[in-house]
Task: structure prediction
Amino acid sequence: MTAELTVFQAAAHVHGGAQPGGAALLAAGGALSCGAAYLLASARLRRRGDRWPLLRDLSFGAGAVALVGAALASMPGAPFTAHMVQHLVTGMAAPLLLVLARPVTLALRSLPPGPRRPLLAVVRSRPAGLLVLPPVAALLDAGGLWLLYRTPLFAIAHERPWLATLVHVHVFAAGLLFSAAVCGLDPLRRRHGPALRGAALVAAGGAHAVLARTLYATGPPGTRFAAADLAGAAEWMYYGGDLVEIALAVAVAAQWYAAAGRRLAREARRAPPGPGGPPASASYGQ
Result:
């Protein structure tokens, strides 16, 4: 069987031409289980009187539903376009929605002290700190996509189901690490400044955009997709990627703005009263 035919048959699954396989069903079940666990944990916090914004529940739920849809639903477009839509959902949109919900923070706040300690040890470990270092996370994310689409890996993976499953797992895991590294919302071994996170985002976005442009001209080695299909996939990758990257940039900017406001407030409290002003102990409205 040629690589071309194998790729089209595998893409037909994404396009709705085949029943979901065991890996897709397992992924959908895992996403639903994680979503249910998140909602139960947030409800537990609220029952004991702790505050947890409802918007985070909605964000995590939307991310879980997006993963289920990417695993089971028919994707729009021709074969390669449908594959690219699935990639955008699995590797970019869903990870961002999950990260914005701060699942690690929720777990640390809702778990009892016993299970909380090993989780905190993992989060604060050196390997975890390396993986969420913004340049490393950007390399894993963008570099993995270049390896997938500019080498024969894409065609080979569709001839070997186990390798295709590993590729999907990497796409999701790399997107999750990159979103976590750029957003920096959950407790990490070290909180990196907005400059480093912003630079990693710009570098990864540039690599993503250049890769999308190359797909206009030629598909992954070992495949033969129609020109219109390649163009559609490239447009989804380029413009869809831009939307997610803009959302990441907004998250970084919002944190920088909030941190700057807190810093100015602290400086104002520490500053001595100006000439002719009231003494520090004076109170107004008396």
